[in-house]
Amino acid sequence: MHRQRPRSNIVDGAVFAHPNALIENGAKLGSGSRVWAFAHVLKGAVVGKDCNLCDHILIEGKVRLGDRVTVKSGVFLWDGLIAEDDVFIGPAAVFVNDLRPRSRNTQWKCLQTLLKQGCSIGANATVLAGLQIGRFAMVGAGAVVTRDVTDFALVVGNPARFRSWVCHCGRTLTFRKSLGMCDCGRQYRSRGNNKVEEVAS
């Protein structure tokens, strides 16, 4: 069992940091977050409460993660990536922040990618720069996302295309006319224009 090591850059209570994790001074991690072996969190990065940062990841200094975010192994989060609360990022998922990359280009513009509350990015998926992945949306494993993904949508393939609507819990929704039901008890309504909203219980 590894002992938690005190670090001057950890704020807002106790954080577990593996002895082989590298957390630079000036990075901010919220209470209850866990940083595992060979993870590198750069100065300026902001990580919320109760996050889980797995082995062999990199988080650059202009990345912002909300609370309860999970980042699985082999993921690199570059400047401009913002993840809201409860986001899941699967192993080896790829994000980019430059649509016209060139070596030693000092004029490049960093584009922002927004992962909205509760969305999931599947293993080995690729998300291009400047996009938004909607609330509780799901990107299938290996998908290549080239356009925004709306709330509660499941997208798969290369390029990623709409497959179905999904619930908070991740199950596929079944619609009768405009009303969708999930086995977990949540209800949804189709608003047209390729949008779905949860119905308050």
Describe the structure in your own words:
- The protein has 201 residues and is mainly beta.
- The protein has a single domain, classed as Hexapeptide repeat proteins (UDP N-Acetylglucosamine Acyltransferase, domain 1, 3 Solenoid).
- The protein is built from no helices and 26 strands.
- The chain has strands at residues 16-17, 22-23, 28-29, 34-35, 40-41, 46-47, 52-53, 58-59, 64-65, 70-71, 76-77, 81-83, 88-89, 94-95, 113-115, 120-121, 126-127, 132-133, 138-139, 144-145, 153-156, 161-165, 174-176, 179-181, 187-192, 195-199.
- The radius of gyration is 18 Å and the shape is globular.
- The N and C termini lie far apart (44 Å).
- Mean pLDDT is 92; it is low at 1-8.
List keywords for this structure.
201 residues, mainly beta, UDP N-Acetylglucosamine Acyltransferase, domain 1, disordered N terminus
